[in-house]
Amino acid sequence: MGLPPYKLITTPQDWQTCLETLQAAPRLAIDLEANSMFAYQEQVCLIQISVPNHDYIIDPVAPIDLSGLGEIVANPDVGKVLHAAEYDLLLLKRQYDWQLNNLFDTMWAARILGYKRYGLANLLQKLYDVKLNKRYQKSDWCRRPLSPEQLIYAQYDTHFLLQLRDDLYAQLQQAGHLAEAAETFVQQTQVKLTNHEFDPDSFWSFTGVYELSASQQAILKALNIYRDEEAKRRNQPHFKVLGERTLVELAKRAPRSMQELEQIYGMTAGQMQRYGRSLLAIIQQNRRAAAPPPPKRHKRHPDIVLNRYEKLHTWRKQRAQKRGV
Predict the structure, then answer these.
(1) Second label for 174, Cα 20 to 30 Å away, from 11, 157, 194, 281?
(2) In what order do the strands lie in the sheet with 103-105?
(3) Structural domains of the chain ordered from first start
């Protein structure tokens, strides 16, 4: 299905015209594109907003002042429609300190209604026979220029959201689930920022860490810290520097030479060239390092609490099966 032309906003003049339209709208459909697959600290790379008769694609990398949009996002009198809003709300809070109010999340609406497949592509195809092309889903959205095909892909993410919201609202109303949905939407907007700083002890979550000896765990901790330093320096996500399984293998086998390093799972020629000497040095320096203290275990809840949880869990499961959700 073809779409009307989108409006790409990259200048203060275009943004002012766009903002005036958005300020007059009673509700907005919003989506974000970020670069979490390409950066150490992800950032908002595109903001797509649809109102009746207009699809805007706003470039937050451009020199425009978005504070006016933040006021709209916070305004409880203006409806905001998003699909699977949790990650987008987290990004808006972390990067702009915006608190979104008056949310309708089409993903959660579909889940409450019992849709088995509630991704946006699934819903658009089922309800409107619109098929989304996922080719650009994993694009580096902060890289400029973006192609017309990428921008059209981004436009699809909001173009149908207002219509989808109205159709799902009617279904919620008919099913008697409006109050439940409204409560869920409010919960979604209560974003709590977690500590986003690197945790040197994050290696304890790696698969296979408890199969390592204490000395191997010490090496793994040092390698994990080195990986974070390199990721930050190169502005890359951790997995693009070295994968977790590769770190565990390095700690387990503790290679002493480039020839031995070459045999480690996941080590590419590029990684050997970039990190090889440093990895060997870190491993050598930490062969006799003190064992890292294990993570603190959560205190076991009393049996009465665990029994209560099991009963609630069983009740919830039975209730969900009865409703088909």
Answers:
(1) 157
(2) 7-9, 54-58, 44-51, 27-34, 79-82, 103-105
(3) 7-189 (3.30.420.10), 200-285 (1.10.150.80)
